[in-house]
Design brief:
By secondary structure, the protein is mostly helical. It is built from five helices and no strands.
Length: 124
């Protein structure tokens, strides 16, 4: 009985701070993903998981934009080629990032929109 009570007491002492920390971390928003963070990923070495993440992020942005347009919204932010190769999107973003160093504190998605608008303007 004493051992059980001791173990319960010890578990409570250990678990309380851990649970409190877990609960407070759950409420903490994730850090912002900035244009400079995406640029760093896009400039990482060939075969890098960061490079793959960059390319997937850019492809996801284009896919989401295409879904919005397909839903009948009349957006003309950019007109990237349908199913544009990931390498092309990456190259365009990296070039834009180098030419727009003053924009690197923007949220990454804002920067992607601006970069793709520069690289793939829509014809009016």
């Amino acid at each position: 009985m004493r051992l059980s009570a001791f173990l319960l007491f010890a578990a409570t002492l250990i678990a309380s701070p851990v649970l409190a920390q877990m609960m407070s971390n759950d409420l903490t928003p994730p850090p912002r993903f900035l244009a400079k963070d995406l640029a760093a990923s896009c400039e990482s070495g060939e075969g890098s998981p960061l490079l793959a993440g960059c390319q997937r992020y850019l492809q996801g942005a284009v896919a989401m934009y295409e879904l919005i347009v397909a839903d009948g919204k009349e957006l003309t932010w950019f007109c990237a080629p349908h199913e544009a190769p990931a390498g092309l999107l990456q190259q365009q973003y990296v070039e834009w990032a180098r030419d727009n160093a003053d924009q690197m504190e923007l949220d990454a998605m804002q920067a992607v929109r601006m970069a793709l608008a520069d690289a793939f303007p829509c014809q009016e």
